[in-house]
Amino acid sequence: MLIRCPPDIPASEITPESVYMSRRKLMVSAALMVGGVAASNTFAVDDVGEGDPLRYQKAAAEGAPGTFTAEALTPLRDVTHYNNFYEFGADKGDPAAYAQAMTTSPWRVAIEGEVNRPGSYALEDILQGVALEERVYRLRCVEAWSMVIPWIGFPLQHLLKRFAPSSRAKYVAFTTLHAPDQMRGQRSATGTIDWPYVEGLRIDEAMHPLTILAVGLYGRTLPNQNGAPLRLIVPWKYGFKSIKSIVKIRLQETQPKTSWNVLAPSEYGFFSNVNPGVDHPRWSQKSERRLPGSLFSPNRIETRIFNGYADQVASLYSGMNLRRYY
Hints:
The chain is built from nine helices and twelve strands. By secondary structure, the protein is an alpha+beta fold. The chain has a single domain, classed as Alpha-Beta Complex (Sulfite Oxidase, Chain A, domain 2).
């Protein structure tokens, strides 16, 4: 297998072919050893069908690095069977039903634009030397529902710095896989999104330590319906900003045209920071439905500005009109 890299990337950073296919199997094991997470604390997927909040609540109480909430976790089944991933259909159950048609190995990511080391890289080489962490983040969707998920990933800034952004890099654009033969939602003649799906961040948002690239959740590698094998997590923004199944990262001087913002700019702003004071035109954002819940027990909670991460991120928007720049 030929892996093309710029000549200034040391050979020592390139994953040998003999290791390539087994690298991903080692991700979770390596992540669980980061930050003092002992091997005895590992667990099988079947063990977390209803979530394992005690493990993460204990870690949060003890101040474990990368753990930012002690809230009860959303059960694994809800996390993996109630998803927005329009590439596989608009119904919340469509991703779990159809995403297995997507091939995630091998996987390449293009690094383009205002960087000094552009190229097309195998995912295993992007992850070479990366220290994975477990982080418990809230993820709130614009439709006013939310989850609490233990992610496995690493700060996006670590990847961007590795490829040396130029001084002209003001924004970062991300692109999802475009494969209509694998993604049935991209084949629909009545689809509303101009594929492929594109999202973007300002460079300071991308470099913020809360912004991560995730490769796993709940102690396992990412399921396809959750954005395998590589997705973005920006916990203070509405969930559609956390783009899935990334194949391209482009640094650029101008603000990227993002999919939902192009489709419906009055409903989906470029920034899309969680803000209970700015309602969606068709529903209120003042409260959210925390999963799991039911018709008779909807588990409604008040929405918090910046999804509860104001202490960490509010300074990014100092002086901005958050109603205008929604």
